[in-house]
Specification:
elongated; alpha+beta; MPN; 5-stranded mixed sheet; hydrolase; Cytidine Deaminase, domain 2; 246 residues; protease
């Protein structure tokens, strides 16, 4: 059994003995069976957010009552999205061990893989909703700014999705020369700039607008189209193209 067993927030994790000290009270097995049947019969919408996490954690910590744990984790990380997107080290500080953390990250990875496949299956420009779903799932809840560039071919199919830089809570560097050089390396015909605002507010800053215009102009000289700059926040997204800023 894994060490995903801290009895309380800030407690020690790891030992099987700790798990034994907080073994499920009577009736937990029946409760989990009911959750399982609701999930199988009604799909994921049949369970509340904390119930999804509760059942997932129960698979990794079978001898623990995971209902209060699931509620605490969701509250601490600001929702199920924040929990799944959280850094493993941050989750570990709550007392969870590797098996439970791995279960959470596996769900996130599967979701992102599915959303990414939707984006790659057709021209990106024609699947904007799928792109936004993917980017929001990947970027909306991380605690630092991250700059991504989606490089496209002449048919607007995705060639490469690359992280160009990771910064602090309120800034991340993006360099025109690096973006354009990478586009040339990949023989890209176009690109989409993307970054997140950990504050949740996706409104562009003056610096966001200025650097985007620099990249647009540099791309124009080399026949590389900058289709948009998308800013992702937990409260939504901004498109500099739609806002008339580029």
């Amino acid at each position: 059994m894994d060490g995903d067993v801290a009895a309380a927030h800030g407690g020690t994790s790891g030992a099987d003995g700790a798990a034994d000290a907080v073994q499920d009270p009577g009736g937990t097995a029946g409760h989990r069976a009911r959750l399982r049947q609701r999930l199988l019969r009604g799909g994921p919408d049949a369970l509340l957010d904390h119930e999804l996490i509760e059942y997932l954690l129960a698979l990794a910590i079978p001898r623990r009552d995971t209902k209060p744990l699931a509620k605490r984790l969701i509250a601490e990380f600001g929702g199920i999205g924040g929990l799944l997107a959280a850094d493993p080290e941050a989750i570990g500080r709550t007392g969870l061990g590797e098996s439970a953390i791995s279960a959470l990250k596996l769900v996130q990875a599967a979701a992102l893989r599915m959303l990414s496949a939707e984006v790659r299956a057709r021209p990106v420009i024609n699947s904007w909703a799928a792109l936004l779903d993917y980017l929001h799932a990947d970027l909306a809840h991380i605690p630092v700014e991250r700059v991504r560039v989606l490089f496209l071919n002449a048919k607007n199919m995705l060639i490469r999705d690359e992280v160009m830089s990771t910064g602090s809570t309120n800034e991340a560097a993006i360099y025109t020369r690096e973006v354009i050089r990478r586009a040339l390396d990949l023989s890209a015909s176009g690109l989409i700039l993307v970054h997140n605002h950990p504050s949740g507010d996706p409104a562009p800053s003056k610096q966001d607008i200025a650097v985007t215009r620099d990249i647009v102009e540099a791309g124009r000289r080399l026949d590389i189209t900058v289709h948009d700059h998308l800013i992702i926040g937990s409260n939504g997204h901004s498109s500099l193209r739609s806002m008339g800023l580029i």
